[in-house]
Queue: 2 jobs
Job 1
Amino acid sequence: MASNDGGLSLSQQRQRAAFWFLAPMLAALFFVAAWPLLRTIWFSLTNTLLSDLYGGEFIGFDNYLSIRVLESGRVIYRGTLVDPAWWNAVWNTVRFAVVSVFFETVLGLIVALVLNAEFKGRGLVRAAILIPWAIPTIVSAKMWAWMLNDQFGIINDILLNLGLISQKIAWTASTDTAMYAVLMVDIWKTTPFMALLILAGLQMVPRDIYEAAKLDGINPVKVFFRITLPLIRPALAVAIIFRMLDALRIFDLVYVLTPNSAATKTMSVISRENMIDFDKFAYGAAQSTLLFAIIAVFVSLYIWLGKVDLSGEGQR
Amino acid sequence: MTAQKLLSTIAFYALVVVIFVFSVFPFYYAIVTSFATGTELFKVNYWPKAFSWANYETVLGGRNFVRSVWNSVFIATTTVVFALFLAVTASYALARVRFRGRGLLLMMILAVSMFPQIAVLAGLFELVRFLGIFNTPWAMIMSYVIFTLPFTVWVLTTFMRDLPVEIEEAAIVDGATPWVIITKVFLPLLWPALVTTGLLAFIGAWNEFLFALTFTSSETTRTVPVAIGLLSGASQQEIPWGPIMAASVIVTVPLIILVLIFQRKIVAGLTAGGVKG
Amino acid sequence: MAKIELKNVTKSYGAVQVIKGIDLTIEKGEFMVFVGPSGCGKSTLLRLISGLEEITTGDMLFDGERVNNLIPSKRGIAMVFQSYALYPHMKVYDNMAFGMKLDRTSDAEIRKRVESAAKLLQIDHLLDRLPKQLSGGQRQRVAIGRAIVRDPRVFLFDEPLSNLDAALRVQTRLEIAKLHHSMSNVTMIYVTHDQVEAMTLADRIAVLRDGRLEQAGTPAELYENPNSLFVAGFIGSPKMNFLTGKFAEAEGCTTLGVRSEHIDVVPNGPWSGEVLHVEDLGSDHFLFVEIGSDEPIIVRRPGKADIAVGSRVSIAPRADHLYRFDADGRPVR
């Protein structure tokens, strides 16, 4: 009788299908992600101008750091790595990321613990905390800009009435407070997201653990630190890194809430400013490449720390 | 003992109230402001005193804002349709077919979703110029693929993985090819997941600012966030707060309604995309 | 309709070999049951026959035709899954018709076949319902119906009764037996871990252990002539009594096996001890007698229990029903 070895086997058929199913997605990602990234890195090694994208010449790492020794023996350092504006942006970004993620985690944890308890109106509160998350960042920036307005803002009004400040503060304009303003808005907007992620982790903790602890008469604070926290730590760690990555690339909030303020300018903002507004296209490309490198380190950390079950073949 | 218990109950509910007010107040205040005009606008009102549609008329009367809303709707919808179309087949392959390098591929997709968008801005700018789509909706649709596609693939893969294996095997025994399995068996089961993922991707595209700001140059091609972000008067003192708040309310209310309707599903989608460790 | 031959079939996942070389022929129209403890490879073997998994080495023939790499739908098989695996979004009718629709069978033919199968299984009044509106037993019938309409050469069952409650299980078992008689030329292969199901349904049983075929034969052969300690212990309920040490030495073997119904209470038997426990099933009863062996000896006696717990009895195995095994678990002839 005829043998059927000629046809495709089931696994071959499925692998072939998988290839054709993945090809369009991979092509799309290559087209919009990989290729532009490579071009950005290339631009960072040239002296390309915004007005003349194809007129750039290869200049090596000069956009990052160039060292020239003058005849007089003076050494001149140039490039992003010796640009105080860049380091200011790095410092702003890191400060913003660390502080905002810290507060979002702590507040998110509190909100999640509250939502994990059973009380009347829980559904209403859970719906309410989704509102800040649903509002577009630009809209939140504008809403808060209005509330933080120096003359007519409600925040100043409240603080004055409470006697916490003696005179109105120009929150977004003053260099002393601009960062606080940005942090305030970001924490308001993102704490719900954090709370929901933590809540999902909390709900995976079996209820009877708490009941057993209650029967043993263990102090609730102790229960939290000894039982709850260790159990949700993996979820928490992943959520923190996830947020950290988001915070490191922040652009829109800063751009709209505190335009042109050196006190809040982040890496993304300064890169775009150089690239598009100041016609230092290649210089901006170098700065965005540096940001990419920093975030790449964090992504590796995420994948390593999160121990994400990538293949789906793990302990399911 | 009971006094202490009462006290802690009061403290708990106080905390609940604080959380609630903290979440809702800014939006509430935006609504209050959007109905205020003239000098009323420059008095701090905790409760709605004036009620005038003037700001809304100003915003909707200006041709460009309505135009921006349509731009945003078109761009976000097209992006989502495109991303879902590519993601459904891709996530089937990633969730259901064993092949070498699958883990690596998923890791790459995850990495792309965490890309700083600024890192591709220069390269995308060149691409947009090269394709001649600068200042058209297609520039945004193309660039939004970079964050909607990895996200939808990742979330749909986790959903797809949870579908029972035996149903797929039954279909294989019935003679279904992978394409038939996706379209006739899995898609009908995945509707809830598709709606959730699509909605989250839609919100992402709707809210995007950096690309939209960089790839548009005229008021008629702006998306909503750019329109609101750049809505301004001649100087700092003349910022039209009333119309800005009205515009904010207009673009936010539909989102909030959608989010509240799909509340549970959205939480499930977010968790699938974020922490599934 | 099909004779299935497995020739030295192996299956490996990476470095792990789960099927370690199996030779087995399943005759046309035979009801073959694969049985064994969990992890023995019985389900994998079924999946290899179905084509859902591919064999690593060896050959598989259907009616003399090599099908090693043939996709499931071309093998002429139908499968009933443990979880029924009905398409949740399709009505019962469409569940049963799905395969034929993909085959481009004409609508009239589809309707004819679905309706006759539904009548056979008494689910013709359920055709417009969704799976979630059915009871467990009804879903099971739909799953069987979906298999029947394919008019297969080989019918595969993967632990189809394990999700049903005890009463329904007995009833469905009976129906599967009836089905086998009404489709007498269709080969059926049935996987279970329950040796009672195996004994009641099978024409022949294949006992698997650790990826190898331990013994294949009719239920009576396996019961009466187990060719290993493992099969002797696996087939039969209650489990065969095993004695070691001095009890076995007396019979010149390492392990001595004797079934509970082959032990009698006698005035002066070779073994004696206290009755630890009595299980009364009405028609017969079991005595658990402690005679100093590794485990209490179970004695099966007809009728109602007439011996009280705590009393001492003397028991004797029937000499012509002793099973002797050597240190490797092989029978001593």
Note: The mean pLDDT of chain B is 86.
Job 2
Amino acid sequence: MSKILEVRELNAWFGATKAVKGIDLSFEGNTVTAIIGPSGCGKSTFIRCLNRLHEEVPDASAEGHVLLNGDDIYGKDIDPVAIRRKIGMVFQKPNPFPSLSVFDNVAIGLRLAGLRRGAMLKEIVEKSLHLSALWDEVKDKLNAPGTSLSGGQQQRLCIARALAVEPSVLLMDEPTSALDPISTAKIEELVTELKKTVTIVIVTHNMQQAARISDSTAFFLLGDMVEYGETSKIFTAPKDARTERYITGRFG
Amino acid sequence: MGLAVLLLAIAFFLYRAAAPALHKLGWSFVYSSVWDPVQDIFGALPVVYGTVVSSFIAIIIATPLSIGVALFLTEIAPRRVGRVVGFLIEMLAAIPSVVYGLWGIFVLAPWLRTTVEPGLKTALGFLPFFQGPAYGVGMMAAGIILAIMITPTISSISREIFSAIPQPQREAALGLGATRWEMMRLAVLRSSKRGIAGAVILGLGRALGETMAVTMVIGNRHEISASFFAPSTTMASIIANEYSEATSDIHIAALVEVGLLLFAVTFIINSLARLFVSRSGNR
């Protein structure tokens, strides 16, 4: 399998505090990688570096190399705006734009990218809503505000919004932490389905979730990556004592 | 409750004191342009026109300026710079309006007369607003002074509204490949439309009632002229100028009726503002 995203020596700071310490990690195409670890271990900061969103926080900075299909997104002449179209993101809390309809929420990324043709826009929006398993639930209320949907639907709307611009990687930052168990199950099912089209990196607090949906897992602690491997191995035979302690629930 | 009674009491007092003029002049008070206290002829149209147009000029200038300031302070400037600049702008609201008036007479009006108005005449002289002699003192000076005076109001309310927008909204936009400016339009401005409208209407309410600074720079001529260079007058300034000299009962009553008109206009506009702002808060 090919490596679609390669992280080399990635460091990130909030002011003078180092939150991510020299991470090396690669992601295979069409897989799901889970990042687990206790709160404050730098896992969210880490994936926010992968689409250069971390640096938008005041005083935050990042340094290192992240190769997307071989090209460094931290290279000199790289525009972060273009990177964020290729590497999509879904956030902790569903955040559809309250002033936009369901349809426009999905279409907005394409409009930002300059697509104006109505027929094509419609087609891609419909396709994205199908991909995020939301179409049947919203096909009759495409003009309703995005925020009128339920929490779980809103999160799938955000997934559709990210998918509409056809990113090659989808970053998910604890996407189910604000959702009920049924909505969570739907999103998990969706993730497994989506990996056919996109590579997924998911940060999660929920170890069962990581075990259920991911192919490989990375365990972070205090900004370091302690262990990385196939999910089945990490959860059954971890090499590091700290990983074992974490996944058996003895701290974190 | 007590304040509501006070409000009604003020309205009632204005009505009672204006009654002689209301009865004698009838509706001609609102549509007539002649204001001649010697002959007891009172037409308020020019003062209503002056108030509305000077406030309108102020809004046209202050709205984009204030939104720009608020965006700069919340979205662009580093936090420390934002705090200092924000403080300075809010201090503009603390300057007494008579000081604005002095500045208007000694700095703004001469500058308008020698530089701005001739320039506008050359560039946009085909429009009726920018024709005629450049006086300096006049409608345009009043509009600009008002714009400066209401910018702190509009920008600080807009700033509150912008900083109440959750950070994830901004990140959603950035995460989709929006540039900084697109992010501001999509995540910040779009969802603040009603709130900004409310802020602008509050600013308008202030502009309509402002007296001292306007009186000092507007020229106080009871005449309707299409040109912004020409002197004009407003409801508030005619009351301030004439009340102490009014001798006949009908003259005093007419001035009070102007006050009643001003009271009604600002009351309606402020109520609208509150309606807008509370609705935008619910979204």
Note: Chain A is about 35% helix and 25% strand.
